[in-house]
Amino acid sequence: MHADLLETLVLDDTILPVTIGVFGDWGSGKSSIMRMMEARLNALDDDTVCLYFNGWVFEGYDDAKAALLDSILKAFNDEKRFGPEVKAKVAQLFKSVNWMRVMGLGFKNVALPLILAHMGGPAGLMAAVSSALPTGIAEKLGQAFGGKKKKKDDDDKEEKIDFSALVKEAPDEKAMLVREFRQKFEELLAETKIKRLVVLIDDLDRCSPERLIENLEAIKLFLNVPKTAFVIGADPRIVKHAIEYRYKSRLTADEPSQADARTERISDQFVKDYLEKLIQIPYHLPRLSDSEVETYLSLLFCEKHLAVPTYGHVLSAFEKFRTANRYGAFGFADINSLMTTKEAEELKRNAPLVTSLAPVITEGLKGNPRQIKRFLNSFTLRTRLANVAKFTAFRLDVLGKLMVLEYIEPDLFRQVYDWQATQDGESKELTELERVATEGKAEDIKGQFGAQWTSTRVVRWLKVEPKLAEVDLRDYFWLSRDQLSGSISGASLIPPLIKTLFRELMEHASETILRTSAQQATSSLKEHEQALLLDMLAQEVIKRPAGKGHRVLIDLIIAGMPAALSAYKSALLKTSHEDIPFSLHNTLRLNAGKVPALLELYRVYAPTSKIGKAIAGATK
Known about the structure:
Layout (H helix, E strand, L loop, with lengths): L1 H9 L7 E6 L6 H13 L5 E7 L9 H14 L6 H21 L2 H13 L2 H11 L4 H8 L3 E3 L9 E3 L1 H6 L4 H19 L3 E7 L6 H12 L7 E7 L1 H19 L1 H6 L6 H11 L2 E4 L5 H16 L2 H17 L16 H8 L2 H14 L4 H21 L6 H13 L1 H12 L6 H11 L3 H8 L6 H8 L10 H10 L12 H12 L3 H14 L2 H17 L5 H11 L4 H9 L11 H8 L7 H4 L7 H9 L2
Parallel strand pairs: 1-6, 1-7, 2-5, 5-6
Antiparallel strand pairs: 3-4
Helix pairs in contact: 1-2, 3-4, 3-10, 4-9, 5-6, 10-11, 14-17, 14-18, 17-19, 19-20, 21-23, 25-27, 26-28, 27-28, 27-29, 28-29, 28-30
């Protein structure tokens, strides 16, 4: 559906030129939509040129902006339908891109050595260029700019490139070069007589902020160029973060004292204006609903267990179903007649599971397709392991529900393990939790079991079927604890946004910048994303008790992140307090008056530790 709509937009010549932003969380299906569009557009027989560009692949490129331009020009150069005149224009544009790369390296690093070396002749020029440019680029530029090879002298062992023409061709300024590139590119599009150029730019949210901005700046070169459509897939929060990062970096470098005085906060209007100028049509992908998750799980099970021809028939049936009933769930009942008896028997045991798990997975995994697929992969592995182990009375729905808790709340998953381990697999605490949650008594949950069990998603998990009361959980925990520990909640399922925020929170040197970033994280992250960030920070405190993790968690408490206090206290219970910096008590003392919750920490730090003694001395 999403690919259909976006394809309709880029094929509408009345709205071209256009830039479309396909926005969604990490794993929401942006790449799949891009690939579907690429296949469909390339299959058209109407002079549409489509290019798929993965920004992350060129993360290590010396100039990400040039990488995008190179890829677009290469698409034209490789087109068999274009003649030599078009290819000649493409060659000229390649030369412009190479000049952009050179000038982007700066006058001090390139232009000045070029001028000085030219005074000493081509041989000196070559040496200077080789030292000024990244490895291997000098030779490539010499060829790209038409540098001719000189004949071997008697004393020479190899040919040399004559760079004398290079200095003569150097543009006066980069702005002029950009204008000329844009004009020549418009002329190229007109001469090719293609209907439209569609560029699909994917995985920008995996790039570093610097690379992400470079790609956006490259796209700006094509704004309002006739017959072009750019489709950008990214998490909008990462794009906004990159814009803020670029702006703050420049401000801090130029006027650090003034930057601190202004608290390093970037105007929301500034970011909004930047995006609105670049992206004319923002398209936000919604998370999957319960019925869509059920459909997705059904199709994934079919893909795993059915032969290729049968699965092809299933997809055709799904297309017809979706046309007639866009809001219903496409389940095994809809495809039963398409399968052989053996195939139907193989999938029969999974049908109840899909129906019962859909609400749990929708809530626990936030309807995220990538996480659902990885969840199912791990689920399949554990199911096979259960078969090998010959477990009796083994229930797939119980396994699925426990695995959801393992992903969304690893600490609570381990707590349930501890409970059942001493009670022959049947946890009285879990039975009581399910009863109280069903009766809607959140305050009773908090009083008996702690605030971590009262979050909305955990309470919903407790309420959903199947209930785990009076179920022997030992076999289920054996699968996860002894064989596949961490396969669900590992780093592979942490979104790039969370990894980026964690790294930057840990790297901020300025307390003002750190405080601002903590406030932004608290206001912008969803509940499950906050939990992932807090878990990473808690692990950091445990691994490095003398490190900066304490300061970051305290700032998140001050910023009002709901679960930050309990996450920090939990980490402190597993930490060597002797290594915690005593200077941390100054932060607590200065902020405890405004944030009374910080006073709870006074009772957690070991009184015999350095910080414990510092707190005791300050409160006498």
